Amino acid sequence: MTTSVTAAPSPPVAPVTAGGIMRHLNVVTGIVMGVLLATATWWVTSSTFPVLDEGDHKDDAVTILTLVAWVIGFLIGVGAFVGPARWLLGRDLTVEDEHYLAGKDAGVARYFRFTTDHKVVGMQYLVTTMVLFGFGGTLAMLIRTNLITPGSRFVDPATYNSLVGIHGITMIIATIIMVSGPFGNFILPIMIGARDMAFPRLNALSFWLLFAAVPVLISSLFLGGISTGWSAYAPLSDQANRGMDAFLVTIVTFAISTGVAGMNITTTAVRMRARGMTWSRTPIFVFGTVASVALGLVAFPMFEVAMIELGMDRGMGAGFYDPSIGGSGWLYANLFWLMGHPEVYVILLPAIVALMEITPVFTRKPLFSFTSAILGIMGIAGLSLFVWAHHMYVAGWAPVLGGPFMVTTELISIPTGLLFLVLLGTLWRGRVWMRLPVMAVYALLWNFTIGGITGIYLSDIPVDQAMHGSMFVTAHFHYTLMGAGLTGAMGALAYWFPKMTGRMLHEKAGAIGFWVAQVGFNVTFMGMFAVGLAGQPRRVADPGTYFRVGNLISSIGAYTIMLGMLTFLGAIIYSWRAGSVASASPWGARTLEWQTPTPVPLENFEVLPVVTQDFYGYGEDGHRAAAGAPAPGTPGGPGAPPPQGPDAPPQRVEVGAP
Amino acid sequence: MKSLVGIGATVLAGGIALGLTGVAVSRAQSDPSTVTAVVKGTAQTPQGTVPHAFLELQTWPDSMAGPHGKDGGPHPDWVSYGPGTHLVLPAHSLVTLTIQQYDSGEEITNHYFAKVLGTVDGTETVDGKVVSEVDPTAIGHTFTLHGLAQDGQDELFVNAPLPAIPDGAKNLANGYPEPHVVTFSFLTKGPGEYVFNCEFPCGDGTYAKFGGPMSTRGYMSGTVTVTS
Amino acid sequence: MSTGRHEGQRLDTRTTWRRPPVLPILVIWAVLTVLLLLFAPVPARLMGRPASPTMQEIETTVTWFTGLSAPVAALVWAILLYSVFRWRHRGPQPPPEDGSGRRDNRRVFTIWVLGSAVLCLFLLVWGLVVIAPRTSEANPAQEPILVDVTGQQWAWSFTYPDEGNKSATELYLPVGQTVAFRVTSKDVIHSFWLVQLGIKVDANPGETTVATVRPTQIGTFQLRCAELCGLYHSYMQTTVHVVSVADYEAWAQSPAEAHS
Question: Do residue B26 and residue B49 come from a single domain?
């Protein structure tokens, strides 16, 4: 599966001692160390912690500490702290050590250890994202199976609630990382002409934190499930079983991971752009991804705090959310939504800007109104911090604030409209080379229109009284996060697949899978809009006979999505193993990542590029002839002189010694 | 051709994986034991002469005596209904339910559920005495039956409070104190699916005492099927 | 929307609006708009017959929003459709020539921003005007009937302080009179949702929230819990009986009713 990404061999063979102890650490030692530390912690805590008279906190405290110990143990075992430790001991890493860490000449093994190369991290994120989607999708199918008929006892209500909760959090994690993880790590540094991320070790740390969080999330299945839904509203989450402890450890770990990743991506984009790449020459994907991760830097700590407080409630009876001892569920709701609303844009922005990167390439036109794109991204990122309480219109928390929050919420439609303008303006009169990546633009514009308009209903306070907490809301946010977000990510994958794997994504199978999933998606969630309008609440195990038809339609649609997604996955797996070999620049795109050979060499560029103009100059004087994109099958080949090669499109990107 | 096989295999594998997961998840849930009401003769009611069915349940202070096995199952210290929590009742019948209540208790959070609701005459008998409500400060559990409003199914609502055994009551040979015997009758209507649960917060140690046994199927909650 | 002339295209003397692609797109846009306008009443129909002025208002808003967003959605989709069918380049290679190098169009940008700002302003005014009378509904001329609503894991109960603290597990309301619900919870957060009456407010432990409504239809309606509250959340619902004033009085006088 990964043979095509082996690093190019380069002469000076590192001494065998390079890497020191890191030579012996990998994911297996991580797991062993994690399990050992967790077991030890469990043994110590459960035999020393007192059982309090009031409350059942010991079990929760033991569970939380055990899971935290797993995470720390795993990171120790995988070697995450070797660098800092050696620095503290005054034996900082040598250049050879750094090369070893970056996975030089390491083959497939580098994917299973603490490797700092951003391309390796990107691939690790990509596979993890797909695994998470598979897991969350399976749970979605079980949910829809239970709802095929009213009164179905396929799963009992407790299991159903857990399916809903674990599906929710799995998909939230997967969608947050789906673009900025794989493409933000693999593509973004090359796109800006950097040799790696600003902090390569933090980069690896962000991935392995995520990796450590996944078993914790799955462990919740065996600890009674997450029976509160992913929003984990308190005080229900104070009451829930030990699955909740796993949930909160997952969230805290993941929040640290995104924090580390966000810092890293932001610093990289701000400080490491190639010479001459002024902000106005920086590709829009960089802007959107940075806006997204920077927004995450503000948003996720809220959730982290909410979860730490929940852990204190559960483990020590602190009572942050327990009204009987002075706490308040509204405290949780505010913290949660302070994260929750920016978070949807954390998910959406990278997916949309990925498509903004794609559209000019396939229409052979410049990106329409770069200014609008910037304004839209900044407007959304800014406003999204001030809309959270529209999730609490009916909570009773602050009815007088309803008006102001309605204003901020509806104002977001203006910057969102600008993003539509950019995509439509780029499509306008463009001869669209209808390949898989650009198909996602059409699907996104269709879905996001529906998702956006239904959002307007929900922003209106009186209408929200009828729709809040109903399946209408569920359908709405699936239209934005899945219909727009995931669709964009699928387009991005199809677009960058040749660069990342060295092979072309099987176009026909991919397109069939993609469109089957899109049709199924619209069927599913149209049905869900209908039952929501008719009055079906969210998260009900047994909605009753009133909603029989709509639920049946949704379930049929869901099976169609499954069929489409599996076909798409099949296309990915097949193409990764045996697809036709891709040239360095199969789409004739101008951004820097296509000017370097495939597979990308360890340090991306032999000589760092110098940028003299932006990357959207299609159809401008002297460049009327489109880039001669070679047919798939012409290998770029390792070692080919990157930018001046016969495959590279004519361009004004000057390359030379800085 | 090769691609077709590869992609087909992925779809097939995915489908099989989902099917297996579905079966595993569906099987993994312990099915609560079923208790079926036994019809013995008929009864005169305002609705005419209907079959008279009888059913007996217990509320235990732990899980050693209920349906959870000799060792008390995964949570031996959880309160539990017994002998089962899936009740099967005949439609259009008078159902007389007798509950032996072995557990202690205290004040119920909502005094309204200390009243007898939805039974014949709005009463129940506690140890032979006819009452329409019990002391809200000494409730052990309640038997509260309700369902979904949906078309094609009659509504059914019954609430029978079960008084608490005083703290320090002497245990008998079986390790439990002398129970309160609570008997009440209600009329079932057409067939349908309902649920019952306890409205007295008895999931000790969790917030609002409604976690643990209160929130796990097979302990203090169950399902009711009214069959034609 | 129209962009400037495509460079290098042969000169077309017709005005912008009548030149392709503008004219065909306008036609598709008009057709789609009409179709969407025909669809506009559907959501309100799905929401059922309104049983209160509040719900009536909600359904009107939904219909208007659908109608107003029809031309917007139609514009996006018209361009998409035209693009798919007329601007598509087939084949394994990109088109031999790049498209127009035009990067911006100030006129389009201005129209777009102004248009979305006007629509947004309309939404704001609409929303703020509609919620304004709602807040004053809290003290109407007629003293509202008070109902204390208690949510607890997985049951609703109601107490009528005006009727000698009569309690019930089904909600009885007189038609045509304003009712004020004081909603609270015994344990976790629930949400008190009178589906056909169009009101919803969370039941929070330790807090009391208020919602008012004036039912105008006699009939049987649903009260559902709209916030996940644990194991039997989906069963946490009960029936709302909106009855004539006489029937309501009779019910209020009756002793604690036997639910059968």
Answer: no
Number of structural domains (chain B) is 2
- Tell me if C234 and B157 make a contact (CB, 8 A cut-off): no
**pTM: predicted TM-score of the whole model, two decimal places:** 0.92
ipTM exceeds 0.90, yes or no: yes
Q: Are residues B18 and B131 in the same domain?
A: no
The residue extents of the domains of chain C are 11-86, 105-136, 145-253
**Domain match, B15 and B91 both:** no
Tens of pLDDT, residues C17-63: 777 788 999 999 999 999 999 999 999 999 999 999 999 999 999 99
Asked if A7 contacts A598 with a C-beta cutoff of 8 angstroms, the reply is no
| Å between A507 CA and nearest CA of chain C | 10
Facing A456 at nearest CB: one of C117, C123, C204 = C123
What is the interface size between A and C, counted as CB pairs within 8 Å? 301
CB contact under 8 A, B217 and A322: no
B42 and B139 share one domain: yes
The chains found to touch B (3+ Cβ pairs under 8 angstroms) are: A, C
Pick the CATH number of A115-578 from 1.25.40.10, 1.20.1270.10, 2.170.120.30, 1.20.210.10: 1.20.210.10
Any idea what the CATH number is for the domain that residue B51 is in?
Answer: 2.60.40.420
Q: What is the DSSP letter of A581?
A: B
At A12, the pLDDT band (50, 70, 90 cuts) reads low
Domain extents for chain A?
A: 19-107, 115-578
Residues 6+ apart with CB under 8 A from C151: C183, C184, C185, C186, C190, C192, C203, C225, C229, C236
Measured CA to CA in angstroms, residue C38 lies from A186, A532, C65 at distances of 47, 21, 13
Chain B residues touching residue C187 (CB < 8 angstroms)? 109, 201, 207-208, 210
Residue C256: CA atoms inside 13 Å, Cβ hemisphere, count? 19
Q: Which CATH class is domain C145-253?
A: mainly beta
Per-residue pLDDT band for C12 (boundaries 50, 70, 90) equals low
Q: Residue A583 pLDDT > 80, yes or no?
A: yes
Hey, is the C-beta of B70 within 8 angstroms of any chain A C-beta? no
Three-state SS letters, A237-265? HHHCCCHHHHHHHHHHHHHHHHHHHHHHH
pLDDT of residue B15: 93
B69 and B177 co-located in one domain: yes
Chains in contact with A, where contact means 3 or more Cβ–Cβ distances below 8 Å, are B, C
Average pLDDT over residues B23-27: 88
Cα separation of C205 and A324, whole Å? 8
Per-residue model confidence (pLDDT) at position C63: 94
Q: What is the pLDDT of residue C133?
A: 58
> Mean pLDDT over all residues of chain A?
89
Confidence of residue A651 (pLDDT cuts 50, 70, 90): very low
Other beta carbons within 10 angstroms of residue A294's beta carbon come to: 18
Q: Domain limits at B15?
A: 1-30
Q: Pick A501 or C255 by higher pLDDT.
A: A501
* A223-A226-A229 Cα angle (round to 5): 175
Tens of pLDDT, residues A558-570: 999 999 999 999 9
Which residue from A223, A224, A231, A219 is spatially nearest to A165, judged by alpha carbons? Answer: A231
From B112, B187, B195, residue closest to C232, measured CB to CB: B195
Would you call B201 and C260 a contact, using CB atoms and an 8 Å cutoff?
A: no
Cβ–Cβ below 8 Å for B150 and A546: yes
